[in-house]
């Protein structure tokens, strides 16, 4: 079976039977013996056919499906150090042996495997192709009371949408027109904002990546969230 786990609280804070997670079974299949009411036969994939020829008749193929409406795997980074079960949405495949259908599976008779679902953003939005030249950018201007001139900072991204694990390049431009002020250090941070709609005040805001000019010198550095 495929189990979705949504953990919205730290595992080390669960006391007196209080649990900060919710589980949902997305798909359940009985492999052996085959159910009597099963009328349809699943078509084997090329990979399953190869494994059946290699493993022999003692292997039982199965197909599990995850609904396209299921949320993608999301990892929430807590602000304080944490080494417990990951916060966010995670998936797991569980295969177990029981004597009856309603028996509760035991860990000694169970095999578990993690599963990750990824949601890719489409390249087009409402039929309009995104212009690669229209890159996200923002600029701020800092004025000083006791000094003439101003300091202007502009940050530009390579593109609007990034896939999971893809390096995030930030191009920063400084325009210092003051005579007495000097920029000695530049730091770039990637902040994760998550709104959890299952409970009130479910907002997470944490730093998941940083880049410092003192580490890479005057050159540029890539931040991988």
From TrEMBL:
Residues 147-208 form the Arrestin C-terminal-like domain. GO terms for cellular component: cytoplasm. Residues 6-119 form the Arrestin-like N-terminal domain. GO terms for biological process: G protein-coupled receptor internalization; signal transduction. Belongs to the arrestin family. PANTHER family: ARRESTIN, FI20035P1. This is Arrestin C-terminal-like domain-containing protein. It comes from Varroa destructor.
